[in-house]
## 1
Amino acid sequence: MSMLVNGMDVYACYQCGKCSASCPVYFAMDILPHQILRLLQIGEMDQVLDCESIWLCTLCSACSTRCPRGVDLPVIIEELRRAGLRRVSGPGRSQRAFHNSVLRSLERHGRVYKAGLAVSGHLSTGSRQRDARLVLALLKRGKLRMWPSRIRGRLVVRGFFQRVQAGQEGEKDV
Amino acid sequence: MSNYAFYPGCSLHNTARESSQSLLLVMDRLGIGYDEVPDWNCCGGTSAVSLDEQLAVNLAVRNLLQAKSLAGDGLVVPCAHCYHRLMSGKRRVESDPDMRRRVEKELRHPVEDLPPVYNALQVMERAEILEKIRLYAVKSLSGLKVACYYGCQLVRPPRLTNFDHPENPTGLDRIVEILGGEAVPWPLKTECCGGNLSFAKRDVSEKLAQRILDMAIECEAECIVTACPICQANLDLHQFQLFHRSTGAEAASARKKIPVFFFSQLIGLVLGFDSHAVGLSRHFIPAWEALALAGIR
Ligand code: SF4
Ligand code: SF4
């Protein structure tokens, strides 16, 4: 029996738990790495798509490097994320909002406009006053460019995004 | 003289500017030639791959094609995250003809003979470059105790990154020793610093960063040196934010701070550049105490 997620067979996992023991963000996860695999094995896809863990994973590959069964969990997690990146609510919403802002910036300019991200509320220091102080401190050290840096090939990059969007709309139709 | 294409990436244009600033100085001094990749685009980081796999590959491959004509000896990528993404895109088109065809269609360009991709550490840790650093050194770290921190994206997964070991790499340790410093043994060399959660999930990212700083201090390091510009910026900025968030009493009893360098800053200092030139004035946590210990000002 095999069930592939992004080319990885989830049945290869024998639940030793080494991945969870290696994971640096386990303390914040609602479902631990080895539990993600177990849920996939028993077909509980919805639970996995709805957890915060897949958005907390930093893709650090500590788990996959140590897994005795060669299971590449970050590769699986990337695929799970692709199913839900555009969702607004639910666990992991701040991480998704961040990724979506990065992608908007990349789509527009071809590069990421960090000062734009900073002022659009993605610093999450917990208060406006602290956000402002941080932006100032970064500017003072020349660590934020005031204006976006645009590339000449941005239309090509925009084309990549159009294909993605067309694909997603196509999926909805069927 | 060697000639590389150089890919800075968005972080080195912003929060991690001191990394490219010092690296380019050092490359110049050591006679390692480079040209910036013309019109490079963002590598997409962990965001593009979370939306669409081919998008991530497209973004990587466009950069590799832009670099191709310049990269006689390959493409140098100082940012560990960009390095990871460019390597991953390159592997993907080289091993999957179907993906290659799709990328060619979107880029309207044949995808072949992509240049080899190196991280800056992989270029600097080569025996002949280490020998050059030894020859050109005008100062020494004089036994400064350094925690060598590689982070996660640079060395893992091993199928992608070609480092000596995914959990105990040694390139930085060798460089620090050539510079006259002492690489302290410590256990978190390749643990994730949470840098890519620092915007979206500050509380989690802070725990990861603090764990690394505490461990380095516990192992008696006097500074940390990183090979990843995002780790450097994250560990430095985290200490600043922690300090400014604590109330008066907490700040007074605040935790010990530890300066965090990008490795080319230390090389630059030993080669005789001053602290301003290698970008130390951009740091949040001042480094003068550590430099005084090393007898460098
Ligand atoms: S380390 Fe590998 S085999 Fe063990 S529980 Fe995790 S995924 Fe399964
Ligand atoms: S890749 Fe993700 S799940 Fe695996 S150890 Fe790192 S953070 Fe945890």
Note: The longest helix of chain B spans residues 202-218.
## 2
Amino acid sequence: MFIGLKNFITHLGRIILFLVDMLGCIVRGRVRVGEVFKQIYAQGIQSLAIVMATSFASGAVLAMQSRVAMERFGAKELIASLVALSLVRELSPVFTALVFSGKSGAGMTAELGTMSVNSQILATRTMGVDPMEFLIVPRFLACMIVLPILVVVSEVVGIFGGWLIAVTEAGVPSSYYIHQTLDAIRYVDFFSGFVKVFFFALLIGWVSCYKGFYTSGGSMGVGRFTTQAVANCYIAVIVSNTILTKAILTFWGN
Amino acid sequence: MICVSGLKKAFHGQVVLDGIDLQIPSGEVVAVLGSSGTGKSVLLLHLIGLMAPDAGQITIDGVEMTTMSERALLKFRRNIGYLFQEGALYDFLTVAENIAFPLKEHARMRPAAIKAKVDEFLDLIDMNGAGEKYPAELSGGMKKRVALARAMISGPKVLLCDEPTSGLDPIRSRDISGLIRDLSKKLGCTTIMTSHDIEHSFMVADRLVVLNNGRIVIDGTKEALRGSADPFVREFLNS
Ligand SMILES: Nc1ncnc2c1ncn2[C@@H]1O[C@H](COP(=O)(O)OP(=O)(O)OP(=O)(O)O)[C@@H](O)[C@H]1O
Ligand SMILES: [Mg+2]
């Protein structure tokens, strides 16, 4: 019990130190812009298609379900507002973060993990280059940039999915749907979604890089650390989402 | 000149290095021998500052390195080439990009000059035309030669090789051993390699150091080694 606690604290210390190191590197301007762009490209490509597919599907399903609910209360014209607000405030940030963790996040951990077990990270140090600067910071920064972009894509595609269902199935006029959507979304909705995205990106980048950097135990280790990273990202996103939602509603109002 | 004095290291109470004293003049090629698990790799890792000793000093050209911070070490390591047992090439870079990496990082050279230098080294390791390949497409021996070129390209004063011949067939082993000796002598660097391959060590090294139980049991030329009466050395030579 006591040893378990001590292990836990050393571990926690290492995780926090990793973040401090990473942010310290960024603050001191040790950022390789070329590497960041390479990573943005890689991570974006990895997740774009799957984010679009899931967003389109959730927008469409959201429209089908809200149609049932809204027709029951005789408020069919509110489908657009419901779909838009659900996507922007909640579904797009959370769904995209989860999909991104499983795709790009896992990709980062597996790549870094493989480098770690093949001594490539140690080799970086022997050549007088800081692996934090060369390998970690570009991935982390790319994650902070790519995830918000993917969320915007997800919102647009999701709203399109909702529009398609509303227009073809519920018989809502197209221009009315678009007008309603734009009317419904206020700045506060958009930005409260983005506050969440910022934290999700930070958590995913942090967890995925940390797990990859400290991977050990050969190819089995790479598999183990990668699944751990994805599971931890999921938990981090879901839990922080609850806290952030409460905080945003409390401090920002509705 | 590399000076190691009273170097000690233990892991969780298991003593691995128990007071190592070693002086290596510039330009010398030294092989560190010993059976598996005696701490040869641990010794090399100390020499490049990837491990910190429990006690003792290491100076390279008069500079004490055991007390340096990681940031200072990063800079200091530019004078040292390190050849990993598995090569440790970046798998996302081509052979040529791997070899060019230390130059791109630290040398103020124009791309054309870097390319010329890389071509020169590709020639030295007899891998002309393989520059565009990725490490995954190479055999173990080729990877090691590329890694050796990467370790040597910036002209380090010290070259450290961990088991350069392990996992290679006898002909490839001879190739890489010869290459290490030739490059070391040509570029004038102090070279320390670890090995359990006695024959190739005799071929490459000016001087041999045998480790056992965390200490140096013999330190000298191959004649001295052959003439040694130490039971461990005798057994090691006959194995
Ligand atoms: N990071 C570490 N943590 C704990 N123990 C270690 C560590 N590195 C090495 N050891 C231990 O130190 C001892 C020496 O290991 P080392 O790798 O130096 O052996 P070696 O002489 O290079 O053997 P080989 O010829 O098989 O490469 C081993 O018993 C090993 O278990
Ligand atoms: Mg070893």
Note: The pocket of adenosine-5'-triphosphate (ligand 1) is lined by residues B 11, 16, 34, 36-42, 163, 196 (CB under 6 Å).
